[in-house]
Amino acid sequence: MAITRLPSAGFSITIRIAMPADASSIGRLTTSVGEAGAIVTALDVVDSDPTHVIVDLTCDTADASHADQVVKALTALEGVDVRKVSDRTFLLHLGGKIEVSSKVALRTRDELSRAYTPGVARVCQAIAENPADARRLTIKRNTVAVVSDGSAVLGLGNLGPAASLPVMEGKAALFKRFGGVDAWPVVLDTQDTDEIVSIVKAIAPAYGGINLEDIAAPRCFEIEARLREALDIPVFHDDQHGTAICVLAALTNALRVVGKQLADVRVVVSGAGAAGTAIMKLLLRQGVGDIIATDRQGALHRGMTGLNPAWQWLAEHTNKENYSGDLRGAVRGADVFIGVSAPNLLTGEDIATMAKDAIVFALANPDPEVDPREARKYAAVVATGRSDQPNQINNVLAFPGVFRGMLDAHAEEFTEEMAIAAARAIADVVGEDKINPTVIVPSVFDSRVAPAVAAAVRAAAQHPAPAPAADPGPADLPEIAAEASATP
């Protein structure tokens, strides 16, 4: 059976099966699953008697239809009785993934009187007299709002606020697990820019930071810019800045592997939306040799008509040779490909046309811009956004530590210096003596990452770099961008 998508834990199922208790039964099960293109991850005996055995077989599949095909293949085996099929992802989400718990005991009248009325009144009065005390005496010091309007949920599109909630819950859980930050989903039943800005401004007093999530471009750019101007707490759009930080960190180590310098390489970016624009801005600030930005219309170049302000700026400040063709042509001779767009845009043969010791970051999820198995035949370093592939570039490497550092420093804004410091910290966690083509970023479960990022961000917040000279540069990029889209 030909499976074009790779099996993953996101489509993991557990199948309860009754079958004859003979020596070959287990082998027939696992063989059938393998032939169906799935991956067995566990097999547990639930019950048995002298003639039959009941097992729970867990396997990773590629998607829902593939899972159905696996079940049908098992059902067709002689003597096998499939009794129940459980989707492990849906089971994990039952009832939601986060909850509120109290930090203080409420066992006696004495404790209740201090935590709530009448004692709490004294604390309220203290904050009224000195609003800065809210950081010290309330959850504000360690709490982030994860704000979304559901207009760009993962790669699924405009699903609305209710459907975005599982993602925002997951984000909040990651904040707590990796950064010790208390985060809460705030999903808004509006996609009006003015209304979103107004709502977030109104709720901001309860939070020490705002994390914007899954808000479509170009609206996300304006919302972020206006909130950063209006609020005295950091506003961070993870789809932009978190992605850019992780890509810069990964690219730093990938270049170390192949022995190239950022100033000498040509980078092709597929997708000039929120993530792609932020990546290019950060790479330009770091002195990349050249960048070609591509989107549905092909490469952005000078003389191209109908461009919005952000794309116009990119056309004027990238693509030194003014290439005007398609993505496949752009990657010929390029040192680095970074995809933040859509699946299956390139083939292994396209990667073969890149420069010697090419670097490929194909980050579209769940299916990357090029099959990583094909890319590895020709590229020196390959990374994706998938957890089941080497070199996973995952924003969880960045945002928990970034917010931990900003909250600890009582920062009032997120800066580019913080982004660069965070990227360096992530890259350095691996260590130059440890990096190789399959290890350019640390594991998301590496306990050193978030503290290192937090320390770097805290230092950048407390000792900001001098302001750069007033000349045009990437920081002048208009805070408006086109819809994130894919090159055909």
UniProtKB/TrEMBL annotation:
Residues 95-228 form the Malic enzyme N-terminal domain. GO terms for molecular function: malic enzyme activity; NAD binding; oxidoreductase activity, acting on the CH-OH group of donors, NAD or NADP as acceptor. Gene3D superfamilies: Malic enzyme, N-terminal domain, NAD(P)-binding Rossmann-like Domain. The keyword Acetylation does not apply. Residues 240-462 form the Malic enzyme NAD-binding domain. The keyword Oxidoreductase applies. InterPro entries: Aminoacid_DH-like_N_sf, Malate_Decarboxylase, Malic_N_dom, Malic_N_dom_sf, Malic_NAD-bd, Malic_NAD-bd_bact_type, NAD(P)-bd_dom_sf. SUPFAM superfamilies: Aminoacid dehydrogenase-like, N-terminal domain (SSF53223), NAD(P)-binding Rossmann-fold domains (SSF51735). Keywords: Oxidoreductase. Transmembrane segments: none annotated. Residues 463-488 are annotated as: Disordered. PANTHER family: NADP-DEPENDENT MALIC ENZYME (PTHR43237). This is Malate dehydrogenase (Oxaloacetate-decarboxylating). It comes from Micromonospora rhizosphaerae.
